[in-house]
Every structure is written in structure tokens, then in C-alpha cells.
Amino acid sequence: MKYAVITGTSKGLGASIAKQLMEASVHVIGLARGKNQELQNADLPGSYKHYQVDLSDIEQTEATFQSIISFLKEQPVESLQLVQNAALVSPIEQAGKQDIAQLTNHVHVNLLAPMVVTNLWLDAWRDTDLSLVIANVTSGAANRSVYGWNAYGSTKAGLDRYTNTVALEQETLGTGHKIFLFDPSIMDTDMQGEIRSADPSQFVDVDQFKNYKTENKLRDTDVVAKVLIDRLLDEASIQNGEYYSVKDIFK
User: Rounded to an integer, what distance in angstroms lies between the CA atom of residue 190 and that of residue 89?
Assistant: First the structure.
């Protein structure tokens, strides 16, 4: 049986990825702070199993993934993919004016949790014949400085370097595991709404992001998800450590 574990499936891109994998007969394990009743009730070839977790709580995250690993080790798994999609954009604020608790949660969700999960994941399947695939969702903000996004850009840049380094390690070790980055570009999500609600003093480019919405330049999450799904369903095409972007498809 084919399984995929996806973080951030309560809505947005994560929910779209989960649904399309289920349509492709993949059994999905989703994680999020909130439930997704639509996925849980869906009558699709692939099943859906949900775990409620706050990824900013690292102890809770570790315990949850240990439970998932225990569950999967009792299943006839022939293919296993991990999509680390969950992320926070807040705090959107210049350095010197940020809430420390919010900043800590941000770093935990966007960077520390994916590192902890990847570490647990690679260790858990070390003595098996499974060839793992891990997709980490990144952002163009990792490669450019944006006023007010010092936290978001930094954590995404950290995720990019971490992904590239793990890919190098797995390639050198000859494990057959593949890890790559997926950049969804700009989408019509709640995160975009949060960005548009920022004050110009916090985020000087806020009007540009408002224009993305009014000018209908934000892609639907289902469209974006399909780009990633096409890659995930063709594992042979995945290059270890690659940076794969929606912009590769929609020039």
C-alpha cells in the first residue's frame, strides 16, 4: 500500500495535496491543529487518518510522529512519502518589534519541526528496504530579503539549506532516499489574507500583495497541488536535493 504523511492538512495547500493523493489511491495521514472533516468523510480510493498536533510544541510533535511510525510499521507499506507543508508567516514585523513567544513558535513550526521530523523519519526506517521521499515546501522569500519577513525568509532559507544538506548525506550514504524542495509561489490561501491584513509599517509591500488578489494573480491551491502531485507520483523523476517550483510549469 502507498502511504503519504502530510503536515498542515486542515486547509489550503495541504488539504489539496491530501485530496489529490487520495484520488490517486494513496493512503494519507494528515497532521494539523484543526480537523478536516471533508477529508475524513471523503469517499475516495485512498483513505485519510488524522492526527491533531501543534507543531510549535516540539515534544508533542515528536510523540505524534512516534505514534505515526508505530502505526505505519504495522501496515503493508510499499511506498512512503512525507510532505512537510505546514508553516507560519507571522510575525510580520520589523526586528525590534516582535513578540518573542510568536517568534519562537514561528521558528519551531517552520524550521525546527521539519528538522526533528526528518531526523525521526530517517532513523525509523533505517533498517528497512523502503526508499523514502520527503518534500519540503519552501518559498521564494528564502532567496530574497523582504521588509517585515525577517523571520519567514530566514526560516525558509534555513529549511532550504537543511534539505540540500540532508540530500547530500543520503546521496553519499547510498540510501536511495530522496528529499527535495517545492516552491508553490503565490496562492489564494488564508496566509495570503494574513499578509494583506498587515500594516504598511510592518510590511511595506502590502499593497503589492493586495493587488495580487484584486488582479486575480493568486493560483488556486488545487492547481498548485497538482504540480507537486505529478512529481510525487513519478518518483523516478525526482532528483535528490532539487528545487522544484510551480514557476517551472507556469512560466
Answer: 10
Average pLDDT over residues 207-228: 86
Those residues whose C-beta lies under 8 Å from the C-beta of residue 59, and which sit 6 or more positions away, are none
Q: What is the pTM of this model?
A: 0.94
- Cβ neighbours around 152 below 10 Å, total: 23
| Distance from the Cα of residue 213 to its chain's centroid | 23
- Residue 212 confidence (pLDDT): 77
Round to the nearest angstrom and report the end-to-end CA distance of the chain.
35
Active site residues: 152
Query: Does residue 236 register a pLDDT over 90?
Result: yes
What letters, b where the CB count within 10 A reaches 16 and e where it falls short, cover 72-93? beeeeeebbbbbbbbbbbbbbb
Q: What single-letter DSSP state applies at residue 205? A: T
- pLDDT at position 202 is 81
Which secondary structure element, helix H or strand E, spans residue 22, and what is its range? helix 12-23
